[in-house]
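Signal peptidase complex-like protein DTM1
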Amino acid sequence: MGRDELLRRSLVALAAVVVVTGVVTASVWKAAVTYGFGILAIAGVLLPDWEFFDRDYSQWLTPMPASRRTAAAAAADREHDVWKFKPYPLRMAMLTTIYGFGLYKWWMYVSS
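Structure:
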């Protein structure tokens, strides 16, 4: 399953969650907020350039050296290896904090 398929499945699952939220809460505004939060959450996981962030975090502010591979070869490698995500402790702490806070705020808003 490539990145395109993963993105497609995530968007279909988000659509189902939006419909359920809209029906249960009877609020189009809460469904729209759910859609916005879901799009941001999906984009935060699937869109970042993980090759850039796989470097040591102290080098994130420096330009990434150009590789000898072509862009087409790099894209072909990424298509086959969907999860190049390496669970470094700093990255996991950052993502857990951001997504946990966002999910908490979304839940408090939808359940009110």
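The two ends are 38 Å apart (CA to CA).
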